[in-house]
Amino acid sequence: xxxxxxxxxxxxxxxxxxxxxxxxxxxxxxxxxxxxxxxxxxxxxxxxxxxxxxxxxxxxxxxxxxxxxxxxxxxxxxxxxxxxxxxxxxxxxxxxxxxxxxxxxxxxxxxxxxxxxxxxxxxxxxxxxxxxxx
Length: 134
Hints:
The protein is an alpha/beta fold. It is built from 3 helices and 5 strands. It has a single domain, classed as 3-Layer(aba) Sandwich (Rossmann fold).
C-alpha cells in the first residue's frame, strides 16, 4: 500500500494572551473541504506521539489539528512535570476552554475544512477537556 502525501506544519495561535503551538496535518492529494478533527494531547503535552496521531488521521482523509493545551508548546519530561502542567489547566478550566476553542476556531477557518463537520478526540488528559462550543 502506498503512503499518502501528508502535509504537516506547526501553527501558532493564541488564547487570552497565551501563545499556543499546535500541529496541523492533512493529505495533499485530496481536494475540497473535508471533516476536521481536534486532537487533544495527553498529560505529557503535544508530543511526537500526538503529532503521529494527527498524521494518521490526515491519512484517513481528515484535517487534523493537534492542539496545545499548555501554551508555548510545553511538554513534560517527568511525571511530576506532567502533573504540574495538567493540573495547571484543570484548575483553571476557563483558560483551558479558551485554548481548546482557539484551536477549534483555527481549524474551522481552514479553507480545506468543512466547518459543519468537526470532531474532537483526546488522549488521557485530553479526554477531560469538554468545553461548550456554543
